[in-house]
Write a structure and sequence with these properties.
- The protein is about 5% helix and about 25% strand.
- The protein starts with 13 loop residues before the first strand and ends in a 58-residue tail after the last helix.
- The strands form eight sheets. The protein has a four-stranded antiparallel sheet with strand order 6-7-11-8, with no helix packed on it. A four-stranded antiparallel sheet has the order 14-15-19-18.
- β9 and β10 form a beta hairpin.
- It has two domains: about 110 residues, no CATH class; about 220 residues, no CATH class.
- It is mainly beta.
Length: about 400
């Protein structure tokens, strides 16, 4: 995560306050340079009495906006409370919402503003701080997120509430919300054109070609490249992982058949719906359910994101990987030369005898994190991960659009 910083390196001249609520730097040539918001949406500081620091929508298509001050009650009414239904403001001089200070309207609801870097304000245990593209962005940096309701990425059910199915969608078989994430999981918009974007399909992307985190069908995320040597990212399914090695039942390779999982347009979660079986959600024959922790850990330290490491999914959640499409560099000459191993037939469990970087099932994401021995000292990272997944330095964000 990136910290909130000013978007300038060298200050020249004097600072002033522009009409749009930004601090303006006047350089020697007389040109105005926007450097940083004049107000802080996290602390709600920098605005006059009766105002709030919020996201102001300047233009709808392409989306352009800025962080600035606006009347707390929006267009003269009583400020709407947290959780109230609201209207996303159209682009223009009145491009601000009617939500109370400290909240913002997103997808028709007043949501709490939060610090995406883990500071204050923070979401409660039943919500996650989500970052949205073209929203609370200044100089390319997201300075604030919103608290979206937490959910189970396999069943697609909300953590709390009376209408938990499909993230609270009115019609679970036609969801307008889905459960997405990597280290934490929350509900975000989806739509009919996303429902078919399942295993090895192209996700929705932004103008730069980077996938949206919610650019796949519910239950799927953009993660793997199409094949070794490609940089085209495809969608892949989340699954309920079991340990895989040459001493375990072969069926483990597809995931836990007893776990509940919901298909994108399924009416409800079903047993077996959280596997990588072709009959479950259309996966390829070579797909195996590998633990997602292997793809989330830091390559240099072996550490996991705190939210994930302390959450319920570390030794349970996996991703479906079609191993037939991938090779790795077995001799260190920078050229992939061997196919990805089949954990179920080719690899033993982690032990004191398997000291190499690629010689056991834990080295390939096929064993419980707690049994992998990575927690007591990280082995040299497996370079095979580097050329098959979307680089972790590319920060994927959600989109506010439903793609209908």
């Amino acid at each position: 995560m990136r910290k909130l910083v000013s978007s300038f390196v060298l200050l020249v001249g004097i600072a002033a306050c522009g009409d749009d609520g930004h601090a303006i730097l006047i350089d020697g040539s007389g040109s105005d340079v926007i450097v940083t918001p004049a107000c802080n949406p996290l602390t709600q500081s920098g605005c006059a009495s009766g105002e709030k620091c919020t996201w102001i929508n300047d233009q709808d298509n392409p989306p352009i906006g800025h962080v600035g001050c606006a009347p707390e009650g929006g267009n003269g009414g009583t400020p709407l409370a947290l959780g109230a239904a609201c209207t996303d403001p159209p682009g223009g001089p009145m491009g601000y919402d009617d939500c109370m200070k400290g909240t913002v309207c997103l997808s028709g609801e007043c949501k709490q503003i939060c610090d995406p870097n883990g500071g204050q304000p923070a979401c409660d245990e039943n919500h996650a701080c989500s970052q949205y593209s073209d929203f609370f962005e200044t100089g390319g940096t997201t300075v604030a997120g919103v608290c979206d309701p937490g959910c189970d990425p396999l069943t697609q059910e909300l953590k709390i509430g009376t209408n938990k199915a499909a993230c609270g969608s009115p019609m679970p078989a036609m969801p307008n919300k889905g459960c997405y994430g990597f280290d934490s999981y929350s509900c975000a918009p989806t739509g009919s054109t996303s429902w078919p974007l399942t295993d090895r399909q192209m996700p929705h992307t932004n103008a730069a070609g980077n996938p949206y985190l919610n650019g796949c069908a519910p239950g799927f995320i953009p993660l793997f490249y199409e094949m070794t040597g490609s940089t085209k990212t495809l969608c892949t399914g989340l699954c309920a992982a079991l340990e895989i090695d040459n001493t375990k039942p072969a069926a483990n390779a597809k995931g836990d058949a007893t776990a509940l999982g919901k298909a994108p347009t399924g009416a409800a979660p079903v047993a077996g719906g959280a596997t990588c079986e072709a009959t479950a959600r259309g996966f390829e024959q070579s797909s195996q359910c590998h633990f997602i922790w292997w793809y989330l850990e830091d390559d240099s330290t072996g550490e996991l994101p705190v939210a994930f490491d302390q959450g319920p999914y570390r030794d349970h959640l996996g991703v479906c990987m079609a191993i037939a499409h991938y090779q790795y560099d077995s001799d260190g000459d920078m050229t992939p030369d061997k196919p990805y191993p089949n954990c179920a037939t080719d690899l033993p469990p982690r032990s004191a005898a398997t000291t190499g970087d690629t010689d056991d099932a834990a080295d390939w994401g096929c064993q419980l994190r707690s049994n992998s021995q990575f927690t007591s000292g990280h082995k040299t990272h497996n370079p095979a991960r580097d050329n098959i997944r979307l680089p972790k330095q590319i920060e994927m964000k959600l989109t506010r659009h439903a793609f209908n």
